[in-house]
Amino acid sequence: MEIPGAAPDPNRLPAGLGIDPTERTPRSFHLSRQVLERARAAAYWLSSTGGAGPTTISELVERAVRQEVERLEAEHNDGQPFPAVVGRMRTGPGAAGAERIRRAQRARRRAAGGSAGTG
């Protein structure tokens, strides 16, 4: 399936073009606690074996994200990098995350007796 607007555009460079692949940048992402704990455990135990697996969470995440991005590019953009994003991307929770937040807020209000102003 092709993504509308992701076709090659001579006015838009591919994402990541000209960036040193060894350059690191800190980012903050929200992950489920289960996935995070599994990632921590994998990195911890692999670091003690001396094997070829990732030995830090950053290394594990880099490998996983790179593999998924390459899969998405192959599946949706003829194996080419998607065009670079111009400007800022939307931040905050997606629809599922917003619904989880609403449910948690309702549960807290119910637990507090439903009175306004309690936190």
Could you characterize what this model shows?
- The chain is mainly alpha-helical and 119 residues long.
- The protein has a domain of 46 residues.
- It is built from 3 helices and no strands.
- The termini are far apart.
Termini separation comes to 46 Å
Please state roughly what percent of the residues sit in beta strands, choosing from under 5%, 5-15%, 15-25%, 25-35%, 35-45% or over 45%.
under 5%
Number of strands: 0
Structural class: mainly alpha
Unreliable stretches covering 5 or more consecutive residues: none
Mean pLDDT: 84
Largest sheet entry? none
Q: In oligomeric terms, what are we looking at? A: single chain
Annotation field: number of helices: 3
Q: State the helicity in percent bands.
A: 40-55%
Query: From the alpha-carbon coordinates, what is the Rg to the nearest angstrom?
Result: 20 Å
Shape designation:
flat
The ordered H/E elements are: HHH
Show the helix and strand layout.
Elements: H1 33-47, H2 57-76, H3 95-111
Helix pairs in contact: 1-2
Region (Disordered): 1-26, 72-119
Organism: Actinocatenispora comari
Protein name: Centromere-binding protein ParB C-terminal domain-containing protein
Task: Offer a concise description of the structure.
The chain has helices at 33-47, 57-76, 95-111. With 119 residues, it is mostly helical. It comes from Actinocatenispora comari.
List key phrases describing it.
mainly alpha; 119 residues; flat; 0% strand; Centromere-binding protein ParB C-terminal domain-containing protein
